[in-house]
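call fold(seq) -> tokens
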Amino acid sequence: MREAQPFTAHYVDIQSPRAEEMVQERLRDTGLITLDGFTSRSTVRDFAARIMDIAPHRDSDPDGLTTIRDTRRHAHLAGYGGFGTGELAPHTERSGVPTPPRLMLLVCGTPAHYGGTCLLTDGRAVYSDIAARRREAIVALGKPRTAFFGAGNGHATQVFTEHPDGRVSVRLRLDGLGRFSPIVQPHLPHLRVALTAYQIRLPLAAGQGYLLDNERWLHARDAFTGSRLCWRALGEPCFPLPNGFAPAPRSVTRPTAARQAVPS
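ret:
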């Protein structure tokens, strides 16, 4: 796993007069921004409404936000891991619906006593790394309907979707609600190693958060103790945003860990 300072590298000041313009530019460029200055749930809701059409869903509250905390009654249920204290594997938010929300905003209200660090993986880096070394894996991971995400009413899809313009989207979950065709299963170890190799750690203090492109970035979480509380908003951007990502050039340097740890 790479150690980095992603909060500073992706930071946008939401108080800046150019905040919304910078948000749009950064999402088109890197698909991820970090933010701070959220003093209450209402400030999270207000900011989210400025940059997305908030999409209510199964777990959201009446204002459209979802309260992420240990409910002490949901963690053992498939698809409800976020409402416990356990670790979460890298995933796309709402991967089991035909069209997952494009944007996800997560803001920390109360940090955990220990753990609970956000873990983010750039799907562009994962795709480009695997494509450069294991073309057969990229072909398999892109075959239509080789993955099924969700319960009985879930969605048949694929990990990587190539769009007509050459851009690529990623969709994934690795818990009990993620199932894969025999065509894909031999390549899952390589995918898992790449997910770890390109993962960045993003500890959040109270009032800090991140906004990501759900077609490009996968998010996860460490297990934690204490009364961790976050607010999440999902929705569609209020501005044009191209699908997914443009694959990186083959010459881009890959982490040493990715080269050495992938099974042969």
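Residues 19-29 form the longest helix (11 residues).
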